[in-house]
Amino acid sequence: MLKRVALILAPWFVIVGLWYGLAYSGLINEALIPTPHAVATRFWELLTQARLPLDIWMSTQRVFLGVTLGITLAVPVGFVLGWYKQIRSFIDPLINFFRALPPIALIPLVVVYFGIGEFAKVVILFYASFFAGVIVMYEGIAQISPIYVRVARTLGATDSEIFRKVIIPLTVPHMLTALRVALGVAWATLVASELIAAQQGLGALIQNASSFFQLDIIYVGIICIGFIALAMDLSIRAFTRRLVSWQDRIA
Amino acid sequence: MKHPARISFQNVALEFSGDSGPVKVVDNVSYEIGNGEFVSVIGPSGCGKTTMMNMVAGFLQPTSGHVLIDGKPVKGPGPDRGVIFQEYGVFPWLTVHDNIDFGLTLSANKKSRTERHEICNRYMNLMGLSDFANAYPKMLSGGMRQRLAIARAYAVNPQFLLMDEPFGALDAQTRAHMQDLLLQVLQTEGKTVMLITHSVEEAVYMSSRIVVMTARPTRIREIIEVPFPYPRDPSLHEDPLFGQLRSRVRSMVMREYAAQARQTHEATD
Question: What is the ipTM of this complex?
């Protein structure tokens, strides 16, 4: 157990060590690399005295809302595309066209059509998580072996029984994977969405800090995004392990 | 054959649509399977044996002719015909117990809670799965998964068992053990059985009759009565008569394999 903890922590210590090494090596102007302890101090300052809790709350809320909406739509759409091969063959290029567009490129249009309020930011995150989720979902559904449906039919199952008792249980693991991927993409898109004149949020924190060349605050913002995304991913994985423990391999 | 026929093929032909027009897979096949018979269908791989089983199971309709169950044409799959697949098809998201219980919860075979409990326990016992009631299939060996698939099929009390190379993916020892287990279960709870296999040994050991099929498009080459009485036990494998019959069936099947190889050769030339 102790060994496991040590193994998990080791790479983090290595990164912090390299960071110190670089900061003190004199290779780079020291104004460009704040030391880890300076960033930690600034983090504590922002957390206790200033805006950081509100920024975290606003960002988490936007990601949560965007992903919830995106996945809510991605699950049925991905399911239909995965299950009906004929539909997939002509919808697939369309999905890939939109998926390939970086959400950041859509920001000017989103501003024109949805303004610069909360709604516009959620639209960007929704877009990013929908396309990420829908692909994972339909690739997963398309790989479900038809044998389970055949077996259920030979046991006398009706169409609705097959849907409830065979297709839904087979879909759940793919839903959870889609959710994980969508959350990852949504956090990655967050800064972009908060470029739209946001006052609060981790993206806005980073934006503002860059205007004043406050590198330590930029680092605080980046590290916060990383850790929150990591925490969310770990909790979904823990949930997945409980819910679909029957799977051979947990994604 | 004991009358009346339970499963009958009447001039059955089946074509699939291929890239260059229709491909005939089954060509004018007629035979009958009587009540309680164990009929093996054997022939070269890819000749259309599975297609014949799929027509009885209700997954495919013949292009011409009729496939009848108790005199009525097969409309679709149903719980009167239990199907066992080579790739098991056990539900990975359900425990051993819940896999067996699955069919019993369906509206087609609605059973009370106590009946379900009894049936599940009976077949877990019969198939040696009681210690694994709460295990998921990922923890089971291939042989155990196939035992589970058989238990699940038996639970809804089908009159027919249709098996498509059920032991084909198992190692030789497990396979022999499964053959004996199945024969034992059939002794206590008889079914009318159609077994698709490419193992001559298996066909001779288990069946009361063997239908030898030709290369594609498949026709009946010969129907062979297997004279050994049930219950059979493994010593039968050493019986000289068993050996003779096995050689006879094997040489027939080998000739069809050769014919099939020639066809494929001509097709690729």
Answer: 0.89
Is residue A15 pLDDT above 60, yes or no?
Answer: yes
Domain boundaries, chain A: 1-31, 34-243
pTM of the model: 0.83
Q: Which CATH number fits domain A34-243: 3.90.1300.10, 1.10.3720.10, 1.10.10.10, 1.20.1600.10?
A: 1.10.3720.10
**Relative orientation angle of helices A215-243 and A52-83, to the nearest 10 degrees:** 40
In sequence order, what are the residues at sequence separation of 6 or more whose Cβ sits closer than 8 angstroms to the Cβ of residue B195?
Answer: B38, B39, B40, B41, B163, B166, B202, B203, B206, B207
B139 touches chain A (CB under 8 A): no
**Enclosing H/E stretch for B213:** strand B209-213
| A223: Cα within 13 Å, side-chain hemisphere | 16
Alpha helices in A26-117 (DSSP H): 36-49, 52-83, 85-100, 107-114
**B243–chain A Cβ distance below 8 A for any pair:** no
Whole-angstrom CA distances from A206 to A175, A202, A215 are 32, 6, 9
B109's tokens: 């075979």
Burial of A12 (0-12, 13-18, 19+ CB in 10 A): exposed
* Whole-angstrom distance, CA of residue A233 vs CA of residue A227: 10
* Max Cα–Cα distance, chain B, nearest Å: 63
Which of these CATH numbers, 3.40.120.10, 3.10.20.30, 3.40.50.2300, 3.40.50.300, describes B5-80+160-268?
3.40.50.300
B14 beta partners: B26
In Å, how far are A80, A115, B59, B197, B220 from B30, measured between CA atoms? 41, 74, 19, 19, 8
- A145, A154, A169 ranked by CB distance to B93: nearest: A169
Q: Using one digit for the tens of pLDDT, what is the confidence trace for A85-118?
A: 888 888 888 888 988 888 878 888 888 999 888 8
For CA atoms A85, A90, A93, A94, give the dihedral sign.
Answer: negative
CA distance B182 to B38: 11
Contact residues on chain A for B92, CB-CB shorter than 8 A: 246-248
C-alpha separations of B192 from A72, A122, A158, A213, B153 in Å: 48, 62, 25, 83, 13
Using CB atoms, which residue from A150, A157, A246 is nearest to B92?
Answer: A246
Task: Note whether B106 contacts A157, CB cutoff 8 Å.
Answer: yes
